[in-house]
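Hey, weird one. I pasted the Heparinase II/III family protein sequence into the form twice and got a warning about non-standard characters only the second time. First submission, copied straight from the form history:
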Amino acid sequence: MNRRNALTRGLGALALLGTPGLRAAAGPAGEQGGAAPAPRVPKRYLRAVVDEALLRRRLPPPGAWHPYPRAGDRAAWAQVPADVAAALIARADAWLGTEWPQLPASLFLEFAETGNRTHYEQRYFERRSRLAGFVLAECVQGQGRYLHAIADGVWHVCEETFWGLPAHSGMFERGVGLPDADEPVIDLFAAETGVTLAYVHELVGEQLRAVSPLLPLRIAAEVKRRILDPGFTRDDFKWMGLKDKKEPLNNWTSWIASSWLEANLLLEPDPARRIAATLKICRCLDGFLEDYSDDGACEEGPGYWTLSAGPYLDSLMALDSATGSAVNLAADPFVRRMGHYVLDVHVAGDWYVNYGDAHAKVHHSPPLLHRFGRATGDADLAAFGAFRAPARGIALSDQGRLARDVADVLEVARMRSTQGRDALQRASWYPALGLMTARAQGGSAQGFFLAAQAASNARSHGHHDSGSFIVFHDGQPVFVDPGVEAYTAKTFSKDRYTIWTMQSGWHNLPLVGGRMQVGRDARDRASRVRVDDMGMTMDLATAYGPEAGIRTWERRIALDRAAGTVNLRETFALARPAPVALVFVTPRKPDAAQAGVVALPVAGGRTVHLKFDPRALRADVERLALDDAGLKHEWGDALYRIRLASAQPLGSGDLNVAIAT
């Protein structure tokens, strides 16, 4: 069955999905109001609806599942908009005749020797981008011009000792270093490579046979050896969650499982093993869903959503397609909530609510947003995808994710027929994650936007940031979460929290006697959290550990819509007097010349002011020059840390700060 047909549904009769914690109520046009708890949406596990009998009855035989039109289906590929086809062809033409990136052992070893992972990854992903790009160009043009380039790419990739990344070589029994060719292990990108080659085989396999009949055979053999066999025979990969599970599953599980599932459905020749592997994959996905935040939020942040909830949806869509929509898995209400999260954490433009290892600027694939909304029945999410789409052309993955790219290309025409609409939610609340958002007026980026989160400091990809907040004004950042630098060997080592971006001292949080927050286990988080549609109240003491000597620290951060301000109140009691400082991180150059006021210039010649009692607090400003390319892209050349420090050690206090224009 063609997956495009499996997804065909109208959007006209879809109902608005309320925010997870704030029920829609009567109010001004375009706004939501009220703070009544929304009903909990239960998770639907695959084990309850997908069993061996269903798969035996509905799964097509090996080689008969065709989720997308093959390159020879010229009528189907002619439906791709002409400008998209032209862009794909132009990109592929620019690569023709140029040398493929080389991946020598010395480059692989850089991670073990220096901790650098980007040098190898840049060449690795360029290989895959070229291969996927040549396949898509051949599909839209259909003249055979790219077949030898595709053959070169297939051969290069099949000759690689390990399809994964050096940063994941610790999965080998021999440990970090050069990969062991005798031990196929499945990391994120080995699985991604496997499904990419499976789609090369599916989309242009017939054409490659004319170049050499050995090419499709080599693809099938390598995918079987590296992905299908170890996936089927082993159950000890941590991302599976099937043996000795010691920590919650994260995006690794849904991402790898979706790649493994589609490769299995496309290339596994044994019908019985194909069914058994599908059921095993469903068990892994159920483990992922069990550990996914009960409110539908992505605890790894909006950037990771694409690689967490996104591949979970891909898996459901593949199962729906392969079984003829026997169960309609993608229409599950909890999956719809997983998608709607993206709307609630959108600030304006490319800006999103970030926390942990998430960047504040995110470029979600518009066709993915549209496809997610359409598959789950969320008209707002589909409309947001259409709104975010470029007027012309298409932005594809820079990592060569052919399975995702082909779906995006084939979604464009349908997406362009949808009326676009921005996502500017008035308020939202995700109680399991402890995340709230509030803006001055729903449907508008004007005025203040506030988000605060009280998640555990020990969560996946987490920082020590429980109780921190961000503030935007007129869609521009004022007080921010720095995000994360480029990953290195240190990022996921025992020294992770020596990195400044991971520390609470570089988040909008207090310093108490110079102490920062801790993150030893799930209990290290803000507690006694209360939320309404304006802000959050919480006790921060539990996020600092007993060593900080904090008896209570009640923080109230709230948006006052009537006054047009954001108000922060810190009420605390310490076991012993200590210096106290409130930290505010900003990309705006602060002016602290006036007592009791720090001025921050923002867009349009406006100025936001941080106001406080100069008798209780004194402002000092620290500039941190940025050299990481990702951080510079978001924040410019520097970030500034404003510290409002107590004039003397305090045993208790009641401090008030206003953020106003």
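That's the output from the first submission. The warning seems to come from a hidden character in my clipboard, not from the data itself. The two ends are 57 Å apart (CA to CA).
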